[in-house]
Amino acid sequence: MTCEPTDAEMKRRRLLKTIGAGALASGLAGCSSVSTGNEDGNETSKATASPTSSKTTADGTTAGTDAPPSDGKRVAFGDCTGVLPGECSPQTLTDDITEDTTLGGDCNRYVVEGTVGVTDATLTVTAGTELVFEQNAGLKIAADGTLVAEGTCQRPVVFTGRQRTRGFWRGIYFEDSDNPNAMAYCVVEYAGGGDEFWQADDNANLAVGGSSRLAASNCAVRESAAWGFTFGPEVNVDDFSKNIVTANAAGAGFVRDASAHHVDGSGTYAGNDDDIVHVWGRDGLGAGFDATWDALDARYRVAKLVELRKDAHLTIAPGATLSFEQEAGLKVSESSQLTAAGIDPNTEESKPITFTGEQKTRGFWRGLYFETSDRVPSVLENCVVEYGGGGDEYWTADAHANVAVGGGARARVTHSTLRESGGYGFNFAEEVTIDSFVNNTVTRNATGAGHVRDDRAQFLSDTGTYTGNDVDRVYVWQRDDIGTDLDVTWDAIDVPYFVDTGAIETYGNLTIDPGTTVEFGQDAGLKLLDGGTLTAVGIVPDTEESKPITFTGGQKTRGYWRGIYFQQTDRTENQLRNCVVEYGGGGDEYWSADTKANVAVSNGSRARIDGCTIRESGAWGFDFSDDVSVDSFTRNTVTANAEGAGHVRDDTAHFLSDTGTYTGNDEDRVYVWQRDDIRESMAVTWDAIDVPYFIDTGPVSVYGALTIEPGATLEFGQDSGLRMYDGGILSAVGTGDEPITFTGEQKTRGYWRGIYFDDTNRTENELRYCVVEYGGGGNEFWNAKEHANVAVTNGSRLSIRHSTVRNSAGYGYEVTQDSTLTASANSVVDNALGASVNT
User: Fold this and answer.
1) Which of these, 72, 275, 752, 815, is most buried using a 10 Å CB contact count?
2) Up-side HSE of residue 665: CA atoms within 13 Å toward CB?
C-alpha cells in the first residue's frame, strides 16, 4: 500500500516531533492518519484497521486494552493514539445544562452551538466522545456546576472546533466551580477565540477562574489562538500532570503568581509559538503559602512584581527558568522565604535555576530582593541571575543589583553566577545576615561585582570570583561602622574592596586576609578607635607564603585618601605585617593624629608594623603621636612620601628601627616634634636609621635616659636643641667608622642651640666619637652663661672623647664651675669664640 502524506500531515509530523517520538510513531503507524480536516472543516481521514498495540503510556496504563472502535477517526496525543467513532449523526447542544447529564452513546459526537453553561448539574462526558464547537461557541462551568470528562489513552474525550483553525471557538471556562471537576485523556484544541472570555485573565483553550477546582491529567491542550490554559489567583488545581500543552499562539499558559505552582513539571509545554508560561505578578504569595514552581520545558515569563510576604515559602525546582519582563522582579519580604537550589536532591545532578530577563539587556528587570525576612535563610544555590539591576525603585536595598539583601533579611547564596546586571551583581544592606556566599561567579556587571555596607563586607568569600565586571571592585559603603560586637574578616577576594567616601570606623575586630586589596576613594579612610582592632598580616599562616595586603587609593595620587588611623585602641591585636600602604595622607581632617600620614598611631593606641612598605603619602609615611606604643617597627620601607618618612613626638622616636629604610622621600628625614619630653621613667634608644632625626623647634628635654646608636644623625631646626635635665642621661657612643652627628638643618654657625646638660650629675652622660656642629645659637641657654655647641652646667657631669666640636657661633663647649667635664682626644675647631670656656 502506498500512502503519501498530505501537507497537513507533514505539518503535524513536525509538531509531534516536539512532543515525543512515541506520539509520532503511534499516530502514523500503518499510515493511519491523525485528525485533520479539509477546507470546510469536515473530517476526511478514517482509521484503517491496523492492529492495536499494547504500549505502556506515561501514566502506567497499557495502550490497546480499552478495545477502541475497529473503525473510526484516530487522534494522536502524547504516547497515545485514540480512536473516535466512525460516521454517525451527531446531536446538537444549544441549551444550558441544568440537570445531571451524560454525553456518549450510540453516536459519541456532539455539535455545540453558542455558549453552553453547566449550572446546578454535573456534565459527564464519557470516553471516546467528541464535542465539536461552532464558531465562538464555548462551554462554561458555573459556580455550582461540575464537568467530568475522563477518557482513556485509546478512547479520549475531544473538545475541538468545527474548523481546525486557532481561535475558532472560545474554550472551556470554569467560572467559580469549587466542585470535583475532572479531565483525563482529553484533547482541547482550536479554541482561545471570541471577543469576551467571561472573567478569565485572557483567552485560552482551558480557563480556570474564581475559586474553581480542577484535576486534569494526560490531556492535550493545543492550537489555541491565545493560551493553552489560564489559572486565576484562587483556583485549586488538584492535578495537572502529564499534560501536553503545545502549538498555542501566545504560549502554553497564563497564570497568576498565586497559581503558578499548579503547573506540573511532568507535562510538556514546548512547541508553542512562544514556549512560555506567563506569570502575572498581581496577587502576591501570602500567609500559609508553601509550594513549588516546577521545572518546565518552557520558561516562566514573569510580569510585574511577584512578592512573597507573611511567612510565605516559595521553592523553585532544579532546572527551572524564570524570565522577567521589563521592570518586573521577585521580592521576598515579611519573614517569607525563597528556596532555589539547582541540585537534584535525589541524584545530586547539577540542574541550574535561571533568573533572567526577557531581553538580554543589562538592567532589563529589577532583580531578586530580600527584605525583612530573617526567620530562616532564603537559598540561592547553583543559580544564574542575569540582566537584572534595573527599575526606578529598589525598596530597602542600597543599590540596584541582580540580588539584593536588605532590611535585616537573611540569605544563603552559593555556587551561583550573578552577571550582566545594570548595577551591581549583589547588594548587602543594613543588618542583613548572609549565612554563606561561597563559590559564586560575579562577572560582567555594569557598576561592579557588589555593593556592601562596611559592617557586611565580611560575608564575601575568597572561594568565589568577582572579576570581569566593567569596574572590578566591591563597593564598601561607609555607613554603619564595624561595631563592638563584631569580630569579622575580609577575605582576599580577587578584586579590591573599594571604600568610596568617609572613614570606616572600627570599634570591633577587623581582620584582613593575606593577599587582600582595599582601595579608598577621595578623602576616605580606615579608623580604629575605642578599642577597635585591625589585624592585617600578609603572610599565609600555614605555609608562611608572602601575600602582601595592599591599602591604596582609587587614584594613584599622593594624598588621595586619608590613611589608616589608630585612636584610643591599646590592643595587641593591632598589626600591619607585610602590607603596602600608599597614596594616603590626605583629607581635611586627621582626627587625633599630629599630622597627616599613611599610617597614624595616636591617643594612647598600640600597634605593630613590620615588613611593610609605606609610600606615596601626600604628607608623612607614618605618624606616632601621644602616649602610643609601637611594639615593633622592623624591616619597613618608607619611601616616596611628600614631607618625609615619618612624624614622631620626642617620646616616640625610639620606636623606629634601623632594620628598615627611610630614604627616597621628598625630604629624607624623620620629623621629631618637641612636645612631651623623654620622661624620668623612660630609658630609650634612637636607632641609627638611614635618614636624620629632624628636631624642628624648641629643645627636646630628657629627664630619663636617651641612648643614641652609632651612625645616627640628629638634625636640628633653628633655635631647637637637646637638653638633659634633672638627672636626665645622654649616652651617645659612636665608633670611628660610625660617628654620631648632631648638626643644624642649615650649615650655618649658631643655627641651633646645642646640647645642654643641666642639673644631671650622672656618669652615664657621654659623647664619644661624635660630631657636634653649627650650634651655639638661640636666645635662651638655660643655666649656661655663654653660647656653645656643648654646655655642662648646674652641677652636671659629662665625658667627651674622640669627638669633633666645630662651627659654633660661640664656644666649642662651656663648663660651669660646679660641673665636671672630662675631655680627651677631641677636635674642637672653627668655633667663633674659641674652643672652650669655664664659667
Assistant:
1) 752
2) 31
